[in-house]
Specification:
The protein is α+β, with helices and mostly antiparallel strands and 155 residues long. The protein is 35% helix and 33% strand. It has a single domain, classed as Sandwich (Jelly Rolls).
């Protein structure tokens, strides 16, 4: 039973674009570092303004990114979120809500850094995803009542 679960986990990870192309040994390292989490439709995965400690990779399903109450993006298999908390110690810039049955690969901060060290082949995939998000994003600047500029980035 345990071997079957392990095989299923490796197959699941191999189907996630960020882990595609990794050798079996590398996938085993990924499997040792991650947790698979299933999220029901309509559930919030993370909330805007909360502290972030985990990196999330969408394995199956989709989720909507909501910034300041407005939908700003839809995430699907291979997309990541939570990087700001893991890599910059920042709070979540947006809320992420499951659209349907959502399966996430979750790495805590230590596990994420450990994985990037142990399996550096993951880094280019992660960086490509982040760069694509930056290219798609619109920088907006608001002015509050005191006249100070307030910047935000929306996906």
């Amino acid at each position: 039973m345990r071997r079957q679960m392990r095989t299923e986990l490796l197959e699941e990870l191999a189907g996630v674009p960020i882990f595609a192309g990794l050798w079996r040994r590398e996938l085993q390292r990924v499997a040792a570092a991650v947790e698979l989490v299933d999220v029901t439709p309509g559930a919030e995965v993370v909330s805007q303004g909360d502290a972030g400690h985990d990196l999330y990779v969408v394995a199956r399903g989709s989720a909507t990114v909501v910034t300041d109450g407005h939908p700003t993006a839809v995430l699907g298999p291979g997309d990541t979120f939570g990087e700001t908390g893991v890599f910059a110690g920042a709070r979540h810039p947006a809320t992420v809500v499951a659209n349907d049955e959502l399966r996430l690969v979750v790495l805590g901060r230590r596990a994420a850094f450990g994985l990037l060290h142990a399996v550096p082949q993951v880094a280019p995939h992660l960086l490509r995803g982040l760069a694509a998000r930056l290219v798609r994003s619109e920088a907006t600047v608001d002015v509050d009542l005191t006249g100070r500029a307030r910047g935000s980035v929306r996906s």
